Amino acid sequence: MALEADTSEPADDRETDLDDEAPAAPDIRHANRGLYTLARLTIAPLARAIFRPRVIGRGNVPKRGPVIIASNHLSFIDSVAIPMVAPRRVRFLAKSSYFDGTGFRGELQRLFFSSVGAIPVVRGAGSAAQSALDQSRRIIESGDAFALYPEGTRSLDGRLYKGRTGAAWLALTTGAPVVPVGLKRTNDFLPVGAKIPRRVRISIEFGKPLDLTHFGPADSGKARRLATDEIMAAIQALSGQELAGAYNEAPPSGTVERVKRMLHPERL
Fold this sequence. Notes:
The chain is an alpha/beta fold. Helix content is about 35%, strand content about 15%.
């Protein structure tokens, strides 16, 4: 059954400097709510004061109800930037190794990821990928905002890669609207391999919600592909990135892998 999101508040496409705006109260009903509240009250204002991110269209995010936030992915910092500027609590999956560390460093890393709404998941293909999608679906159906990157992993060359169909599957399965997000300059703010952020002003733009249910059922490969293409087109319009025209993945390791990709071109 499709779930409806409350979009009664008008969308606001104006650019805002969040350090001049009081943060909206987060929608917190789940585990780690205390950590999330603390992060919103301490880390977020400090980050806004220092880096002054340019944020556009926060009003496009429904204030209540299930919603999928689909973004381009340029830097590790993306998973911090989106939850810290969104007008409500945002959940997302993070690889389980971020939560498995030992000692003081491991505890600090676990605390950090929990505070920004991350949920541990074992990454992989096949059954592992479907398991992650099922976990994501449960989060959405509980009424939360859930963020993901349709490209699957960070773009190392700044181009926008072809979207995997997992985001569309979630939207068509749950009926939740998809809010596209365009991130700019987060790769300059924290380049791959860098440990100290640079003083670069990043941009985060939330687009208008997309209703993808008209494409058809989630078990239709054509519906998933068309819905995915609409999501990626909306992201590209916000980010302005050059299109790569391919999936963001390592070259096939051998003949068997090449055959698998030929027989199963869809990526979850």
